[in-house]
Design brief:
This protein is α+β, with helices and mostly antiparallel strands and 276 residues long. The chain is 31% helix and 22% strand. A hairpin with a 5-residue loop joins strand 5 and strand 6. The N terminus is likely disordered.
């Protein structure tokens, strides 16, 4: 249950925005728990409440009150909401187990759904990686439906889901800690703000087009690119959007969106570059 863990953190987990981040989590906090999952939740949530910060504005986080089912943390200053997913792993997994598939699909359609923190830690409960992913990077292609539980299971027929982090553009996986190295807070906030324009796109399909073109640009592995290079992704985009017969037109439209947002800049006819 989340209630005992969350209320414990709410009472004791505090930080100042400029507090030096300590990557070693306090395992003694879970001494009175027997369940491995409860221990992990107590330890990881307390660490984030103590040393984490809001990647939108840089202020501290407070844990949700007991029995909150909507989010785990909220920014003290700007009130942005976050959900934490922690996993014992040296590397950030490309696939993260989550809850019910139907519930997750409903949530990503809601503009006010929480953002996510993905926390990785080693056997000694030392933080190895911490990612923040804004809620506007979640679209149906990021959520994978798992097989229903067997008829012999306690929740027979229940269908869970996986979050496919490898389907999210790299710019949307904002690193606060990478390979046990703490990333400068100003750099984190700057990276978050680069894609904040996506929060204004309320329609999931409209935002999906922008995200898919962003992923195509990333796959070119170059700061400078031309229109013909992006057109090479037309067959892939046609499979994603089979009802759209004007893929190239849509690509040009999305490049305009990204240019207007300051994500890329126009260099010359048919030539663009990323804004660094």
């Amino acid at each position: 249950m989340r209630s005992s863990c969350a209320s414990y953190i709410f009472a004791f987990g505090r930080r100042t925005p400029l507090a030096k981040m300590n990557l070693q989590m306090d395992v003694e906090l879970a001494a009175n728990y027997t369940s491995a999952s409860q221990k992990a939740r107590v330890i990881t949530e307390n660490w984030l409440a103590t040393y984490g910060y809001c990647p939108t504005c840089g202020d501290g986080l407070k844990a949700a009150r007991a029995n909150s089912k909507v989010f785990d943390f909220q920014c003290i200053k700007c009130n942005e909401q976050f959900e934490l997913k922690g996993k014992r792993s040296a590397r950030t997994s490309s696939k993260i187990n989550d809850g019910a598939y139907s519930s997750m699909m409903e949530r990503i359609m809601e503009p006010e759904s929480p953002h996510f923190f993905f926390l990785g830690y080693d056997a000694r409960f030392s933080v190895t990686n911490l990612l923040a992913v804004p809620n506007y990077f979640f679209q149906p292609s990021v959520i994978e439906e798992r097989k229903p539980l067997a008829v012999t299971a306690r929740r027979a027929g229940w269908i869970g889901c996986n979050i496919l982090l490898d389907q999210i553009p790299e710019i949307g996986k904002i690193k606060l800690v990478q390979n046990s190295e703490i990333i400068d807070q100003e750099e984190v906030i700057k990276t978050w703000q680069k894609t904040a324009f996506l929060s204004q796109q309320k329609q999931v399909e409209t935002r999906g087009w922008t995200l898919d073109v962003m992923k195509c640009i990333e796959r070119l592995h170059s700061d400078a690119f031309n229109l013909e290079a992006i057109y090479k992704f037309e067959p892939e985009l046609s499979k994603i959007y089979p009802n759209n017969r004007f893929i190239k037109d849509k690509i040009r439209q999305q490049l305009q969106v990204l240019r207007d947002a300051g994500y890329i800049k126009f260099v010359s006819r048919g030539n663009y570059s990323l804004v660094t």
